[in-house]
Amino acid sequence: MHLTASLPTRIRRDRHEGRSRTSTAVHQTLARAKRSGGPEDRALYSCHCGYAFKAEVSTSVGCPHCGTSQAW
């Protein structure tokens, strides 16, 4: 079944407003991230000793529990 009638003006306006609300929400989220200092460069590591910890992203991270270096 094909509809040949055009959409009422109110529906078209609501669709347009929805896009601008989404765009506004994205801009607000980006601005909030910039104000907070941006993303943190931290990762969750798990050691063979069973200890899990967060540390700065690096190629050489040592386990604070047993001291073993973590390879990525």
Please give the structural blueprint.
Blueprint: H1 9-35, E1 42-46, E2 52-56, E3 61-62, E4 69-70
Antiparallel strand pairs: 1-2, 3-4
Descriptive keywords:
72 residues; alpha+beta; two-stranded antiparallel sheet; 4 strands; 38% helix; 19% strand
Largest sheet, in brief, is:
2 strands, antiparallel
Helix content: 25-40%
> How many alpha or pi helices?
1
Query: Strand percentage, roughly?
Result: 15-25%
Give the end-to-end Cα distance, rounded to a whole number of Å. 57 Å
Number of distinct beta strands = 4
Order of H and E elements: HEEEE
Radius of gyration: 25 Å
Q: How does the overall form come out from the CA principal axes?
A: elongated
Number of domain units? 2
Lateral arrangement of strands in the main beta sheet: 1-2
Averaged pLDDT, please?
A: 77
Query: Which stretches of 5+ consecutive residues score pLDDT under 50?
Result: none
Structural class: alpha+beta
